[in-house]
Amino acid sequence: MRNRIALLLLTAGLLAGQTDTVTLLATTDLHGNLVPVDYVTGRPAARGLAKLGTLIRAARAENQNTLLIDCGDTIQGTAFEGVYQAAVRGGKAAGGDPMMKAMNLLGYDSMTLGNHEFNVGLKNFQQARRDAKFPWLSANTQVAAGHAEAPFAPYLVKLVGGVKVAVIGVTTPVIPQWEQAENLGGYRFGSPLAAVRSAVAKLRREEKPDLIVVAAHSGLGRNLQTGAAEETAENVVYELAEQAPEVDAIVYGHSHQQVEGRLVGKVLLVQPKNWGANLARLDFHLRRAADGRWEVASKESRLIPVTEQTAAAADLMALAKPYEEAAQRYLNTPVAQSAAELTGARGREEPTAVVEAIQRVQLFYAKADVSFTALFEPTVRIPKGEVTVRQIAALYPYDNQLLAIEGTGKMVKDALENAARFYSDKSVFGFNYDMASGVEYEIDRSRTVGDRVGNLRWHGKPLEPETRLRIAVNNYRAGGSAGYGMFRDAKVLWRSGEEIRELVIRYYSERKTIPVDAPSNWKLQH
Description:
5'-nucleotidase,  domain 2; 6-stranded mixed sheet; 2 domains; alpha/beta; Purple Acid Phosphatase, chain A, domain 2
């Protein structure tokens, strides 16, 4: 026994000072972007997993000690996945989920469960998970008693060049506020912080990893410019970094932003851009301690951009070809006519027909008094003449569902005041600036936040705070996201079984005409 201990000590002493580098490559929020194309315009785009594949393989050629992970929201978001998912629901699909097949080909080590994975329904969700040759991780997602859904592994442990690396997955916990119950089955979502702490303790006890990384599908929850906390229930990464300092790094997604690298204490935070616009690379430089264990000597990160010149991997493009051809056929189908060209260029400054086209659909299907929607992309354009599915779908690029909630005049006023923060608060993104239809109002952006909306009227009369209204909102607004907490506890009167984008396509396919007149129900005072 003494000889064995002496041998171990001698071995540790000889290894002391040895160095190694482990490279972690990460993507997030790919949202069905495999082929480098803009599905709104049909033109080539500098994004997508096929181009990322070239960057991934180049990074591996530099360092074989590499892990490749994804942080979720992968199997929905483009017609490329949408047409396939519709075929699965109809029992006509074959060949497997294209994003999972592409990730298999690239040798992904893990993917964290994202909230949009549930949008496609449990049947499609389960099929995609079976197609993956890598684990889907989520330490804070459990299966309720009495349900048969397959649980998620909380973490992955892998030896990389002799270094034991653990990757813990966590998912934003507020999914039930957004998603239909039937799409969730028995899945329930707990505290990400509690799950990370529990996983770290178990890893330290049983696996003794040299390096611990959290792969989170959750936003930062902190404005890095001002330091102000933001929506920590949905976005918990900054809190994780503060409260779980034994973690070496957190790679995260969900909010569609990018952070090349920021230290919170000793925890490195990195967020790659959505839709495969860049690849996160984290390099951990390790050295052997006197006891023979690895310790992190330094770490660094960068985002490697996809450019027009980045070649798309030929094998991934070949894999994508039949799925892409089906998607393009669908998108190019003519469905309606427009008497004039419409644009969203000034849609956040004045009423436009482009936004009104969404509002009409929401008011109709939700049978609502008032409808709220954002202009998601000001560059959206409807041509004069023939209009295709592609051009109509561009009005609503997200897979949100439509809800009718029971509300009040005060709720409408509070929601409009929250939206009006857009004109002075740079942390309010344009896709969170909602406009209302069914009421008339004015916004004076020279006034203080919370007191900018005036002359709010309904059917030509002042809208009283206590007036009861049926309000159309998407599922994210109904969940209180982006400051719209006034909607969070409202009674849900109706929920669509389809995404709003599909409702928009159906509405104008049936009517064959796109409205070209802009409403005059709101005014921005300068």
